[in-house]
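**Fold tokens**
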Amino acid sequence: MGEVRGLVTLDLVREAETRRQRHQALFAVHALLDQTITDIYRLNREKLRVRTTPEEVCAFHFGKATKTLDAIRVLSESGFGQDAAILTRSLVNLVINLWYIGGDPEERTKDYIASGRKARRTFLERFPGRPGPLPPLDADWEEVKERAKKWGDVNIEMRAKGTPLEDTYHELYRHGSSLEHSDSWSADQYVGPRDGATFSINNSPSDDLVGIALGYALQAMIVLMMVMCRAFDITESERLDGLLAEFKALKDFKAGSKT
């Protein structure tokens, strides 16, 4: 079997560098975000100790968010803005959920966990060709079902109300839904202009939606850091206010992207 050539070629790396230059302002604020997160962790390490279940959920969300953020950046600088926007939508969803949990941490953490337990059980029940019988239901299963229903009765739009990401829900989250589910609206991102009988598909790397993916991801991470500081009783409003001011100065991140 011959050598398999990967997709991360020298050409892709060179194009990523030029794309970072074209979106220099956005990437500069992302670098400031990284530095701010590092500084907050370094200065508040003793407070960042996980002692309760709500804190465990908060820490999990932070870890998942930072990995998703890195994936958004890699996709964006590589010219896959549509796919980066889908991940940004996921990131916005995560932060909205965590903000909502923070409104009543003890109860909503239980509801959130129950929803996951219920979803996993349903997955196992419906899994084709499942080897062996299902494990017995846990003793608290009736409570799990009640709490899972309670979590599911409050949809993501309802959770977004009153949060700093309420407008973002209506802008990025809904647009990202079109891309994620590949509905007919999303075809605008991939179908080029017609030339007579010629029908072209644009599936090459481009700058389309790169600014939108990076900009909204930045906003979501700033809000996430606000939630983290509140959850762990950390006072870093000056740093976060400075970061938020830099984000608000990025007035054009929504421009120049095909929507």
About this structure: The longest helix spans residues 53-77. The chain has one domain: 11-121+139-192+206-248.
